[in-house]
Each structure stands twice: as structure tokens, then as C-alpha cells.
Amino acid sequence: MFEKVASWHHLRAPWREAKWLAIDIETNGLDAKGDAMLALAWVRIAPPRILQNQAEYRVVNTNLELTQSAVIHQLSLSDIAAGLPLEEVLAEFVKAAEGAIIVAHNAQFDTVVLQQALKQTGMKWQPDGVYCTLRAERRRLERQSQTLKPDSLTLAACRERYGFDAFSGHHALNDAIACAELFLAQAFRFSSGHHPNARSLLKEGR
């Protein structure tokens, strides 16, 4: 009950006062429900800043055979061998994410992977909300009646429209920070001329 009341007040606070946490998850494939989590990164957003000194990146130790996805994400067998047990990674994340609104690009994938991992380890956690930078950008472009071309909603393509430099993707920490930057650009554009609360901004990214 206390958590629900706290969440209610949190979402009605000005968006710049809310607790936002950008995340990115690397997996062993493209099946959110079936493939294993290989790495998890998160970084706190305290608008207008991204607290990179509080950014974290954790590799998960797994015995599963690595696929091409691991190579794309710049992970080697030695990286995996030196990783932490899934339970430790999730426990650290849950502590950092307590009472946070999650920000991710293609957030549905990340949240499904996360919930599957939590279920696997017998842990429970729910964010105060989930903001998807991909969905927010799609909504903005559709309002402008723009035709969405293939690959127009990738993280790199979305960032380019806001004037960000190109970045090297497919590393969870780099992607989490890049997503945080995109979120702030979207949020400040959305809030220009008024002062929305966290709930109003959250609706843009649902």
C-alpha cells in the first residue's frame, strides 16, 4: 500500500523532479522471453543531467553457448566467465532502480527480458513506470504526419534528428547513456512552454 501511495505522488511531481533510470540489456538472441541476459547497464537521469558517475555495467556469468549476438555486443567468453551470477546483478539493479521510472529504447524488449530474469531468480520488482524513447519518437513523427522509413526509429536515427553525434552502439553502457541523452532531448522538447508532471511525460513514451 505504501509503495502505491509513493508511486502516486512520484508520478504527479514535476517531471524534472522524478527519478528516471535509463537501462539497456544485452541478450543471447532476439527472443525476449527465451534468450538469456548477458549484460545489464543503467544510468540515473536527474534532469537536466545524466549522472554518468553513477552509471553501472554488469556482465552476467552464464554457461549457455554464446551466439553471434554476443559478438555483436562485444562480449567474449572471458568476459562472460568473469561475470557475476544473475542473482547478484539483479539484486544490485533492483536496489538502484527502487522507485524509478525506467527509460529504454524499445522498452518492451528490455522489460520482458528483465521480468523473465527476475522470475527465474524468484525476485520481484516493478518500476513506477516505463518510458520508451522509440514509442515517444514514433508518436511525435506521426503527429507531424511523417512517413516512417525502415530503420527510422533506431536509437542512432532518433538521436540524429536531435543533432546528436553518431555513437558506437551494441554496448549496453554506451546504449544506456545514449538513450538517456535522447530521453532528455525528447522531454525538453515535449515540455517546452509548459511544466508537465512525470505522468504526462510518461504517456508520451507508452
UniProtKB/TrEMBL annotation:
Residues 19-192 form the Exonuclease domain. Keywords: Exonuclease, Hydrolase, Nuclease. The keyword Magnesium does not apply. GO terms for biological process: DNA metabolic process. GO terms for molecular function: 3'-5' exonuclease activity; nucleic acid binding. This is 3'-5' exonuclease. SUPFAM superfamilies: Ribonuclease H-like. It comes from the Bacteria. InterPro entries: Ribonucl_H, RNaseH-like_sf, RNaseH_sf. The lineage of its organism: Bacteria, Pseudomonadati, Pseudomonadota, Gammaproteobacteria, Alteromonadales. GO terms for cellular component: cytosol.
